[in-house]
Amino acid sequence: MNGPARLIVASVLAALGLLAGCMPTSVTLNFGESEGKLRESTVASEGAGGAKVALIDVRGLIIDGPTPGLFTSGRNPVAELVTRLRQAETDPDVKAVVLRVNSPGGGVGATETMYNEVVRFRERTKKPVVVHLADIAASGGYYLALAGDRIIASPSGITGSIGVIIPTFNFADGMKRVGVVSRSVKSKPNKDLANPFEPMRDSQYTVLQSMVDGMYAVFRARVVERRGAALDSSRLDELTDGRTMLGLEAVKAGLADETGDVYDAFARARELAGLSEAALIVYYRGGSARPTTPYAGAEMPELLPEGFRSAAGTGPGEVNLLKVDLSPVLGGAGSESHLTTGGAYYLWVAGW
Questions:
Q1: Torsion over CA of 274, 94, 155 and 245, rounded to 10 degrees?
Q2: Mean predicted confidence (pLDDT) in 5-13
C-alpha cells in the first residue's frame, strides 16, 4: 500500500474511533499477510501410523475471484482449492482427501473449474476423495460434490437445488415515472440482452432461457453420470427441479451415499485408501490460528481484534460490527468478484 492510501486508511479508522465510544483503544492492521507455504495441523487421528488424510474445506460462495471480506478481499476459492489439492498430491503420506463442502454454490464457470480440478486430482493421484456435505451444500456446492468417490451428507444439512439461474432486474417503469428514459445505441437487437434500464422484451428473455436450459442440461447429465444406479431414476425430474432437501432425503433419493459427520467421512476415506491408521490433517497459512479440531473455523486474516470479527465468517449475509470497503483505495478488484445480474449461477438463492 502506498503512502497516501495508508494515510486515508488511518484517517478513516481515526474517525470511526471518535464516533464510537465502545471502540477498542488500539487496532492492529496487517497489510501484508504472509502468503507462504501452507502449514499443516493434525486435528484428529486413528492409530499412530504415518499415513494422512487431508481435510480440505470449500466454504461460502464459489466464485473465481477474491471473496468479499472485512477491510480486505478474501482469497480466491478456486485458487485456494487448487493450492490445497496440490499440497495433498505432492505429499506421499497423504493417501486420501476429505472435501468438506459448505456452500450454496456460485458461478457456473467457477463451479465447473473446481469440479474438474477434483476429478483431475483423483485421476492423477489415484487417491480417493470423500465429500462431506456440511450445513449447506446446494446447487454448485452439490455439483462440486459429484466429483468425489463417495458423498456423505449431514442428516439435517441442506442440499439439492439442482439448477441454474440468471438473475435480472428491470428499472424501466420506475425510471419513466420520474421522467428518465433510457435508449441504447446498439449494433443489433440482442446486444443489450436484459438491459435493466429499458423495457423488458420477451424475445431477449427467450435467448437467456435457452442459455439456462443448456447449462441445466449439463448439470442434470452430470447428476445422472456420477450417481448412476444409486439414483432413483423414477424421481429424476422431481429431484432436479431446483428443490432443496435435507441430507437424509438426499441419501434416500440416491443423491448421496450415506449420512454422517466429518469423522464418518474420515473413516470412509481411510477405508477407500486401505488404511487402518491415519491422521486427519488440515492446511492453514500464517496469520491464521492453528486449527486443533476438524471444526475449526475458516481462515481469517488477523486484521482486527477478536471482538470485531464476524461470528459467521465473511461474505453475503455476514454480521459485522464494522464494515468498511476500501477497495478503491487499496486498488483491489472492487465489486467485480461479487454476484451481479447478467451472470449465470449454480446457486441456491436463499443461501446467499
A1: -110
A2: 51
Indicate the average pLDDT of the chain.
81
CA dist 352 and 348 (Å) reads: 7
**Rounded Cα gap, residues 15 and 320, in angstroms:** 18
Q: What CATH number does the domain located at 37-168+214-300+311-351 have? A: 3.90.226.10
Give the span between the Cα atoms of 293 and 295, in whole angstroms. Answer: 5
The two beta strands, 278-284 and 39-46, are: antiparallel
Cell numbers standing for residue 24: 477498542
Bridge partner residues of 196 (DSSP): none
Check residue 337 and report its DSSP letter: G
pLDDT tens digits for range 210-260: 999 999 999 999 999 999 889 998 999 999 999 999 999 999 999 999 999
How many whole angstroms separate alpha carbon 339 and alpha carbon 141? 16
Dihedral angle of Cα 154, 226, 129, 264, to the nearest 10 degrees: 30
Confidence of residue 328 (pLDDT cuts 50, 70, 90): very low
Class of residue 331 by CB neighbours under 10 A (exposed 0-12, middle 13-18, buried 19+)? exposed
With both helix axes pointing from N to C terminus, report the angle between 108-125 and 77-90 in degrees, rounded to the nearest 10. Answer: 0
pTM of the model: 0.79
In 10 A of CB 343, how many CB atoms?
16
122: left (phi over 0), alpha (psi -120 to 50) or beta: alpha
pLDDT tens-digit readout, 55-104: 999 999 999 887 655 444 568 899 999 999 999 999 999 999 999 999 99
Query: What's the N-to-C CA distance of the chain in angstroms?
Result: 31
C-alpha dihedral sign at 125, 128, 134, 138: positive
How far is Cα 314 from Cα 74, in angstroms, rounded to an integer?
Answer: 8
Of 109, 114, 123, give the one whose Cα is nearest residue 145. Answer: 114
